[in-house]
Amino acid sequence: MAGGQMMDLAAEGQTLDLPAITRLQQLKTGALIEYSVEAPCIMARLPADARTPYRGYARNIGLAFQIADDLIDHGGDEGAAGKRTGKDAEAGKATFVSVLGPERAEQQARLLVSQAIEHLDAHGAEADLLRTLARFSIERKH
Questions:
Q1: Do residues 88 and 95 make contact, with C-beta atoms less than 8 angstroms apart?
Q2: Residue 12 confidence class, pLDDT cut points 50, 70, 90
Q3: Nearest CA to 21 among 110, 137, 105, 135?
Q4: Domains of the chain with CATH codes
Q5: 76-115 confidence digits (pLDDT tens)
């Protein structure tokens, strides 16, 4: 996570393509979310291959969460966000929104959430909280 933050700071004012932005964000927010999902799987002694759907779920919502964050910074309400918006553009940061545009970025976030939820297809109602968390990652205003 620290490496992703370092990459983020070093990337200010640079032009990054979509794969570079994706990698950077996977090492920041994505890494934190992936750890939060995989750690309980490890503690439950799930073998590595059984953890694959959970890693996919976490990877997808990590990126969706970051895209939502970029969208909030791009055009969100400062009062609802609880922070000043527009900072990424002011800092010259390449984001999902700056590369894809707000409409495509939102579409991508929704696709990622759908894919995250698909990773839980082997579960019934016991995974509803995880499905709700996935949806929340892009529906939030802060």
A1: yes
A2: confident
A3: 105
A4: 2-139 (1.10.600.10)
A5: 889 888 899 999 999 889 999 999 999 999 999 999 999 9
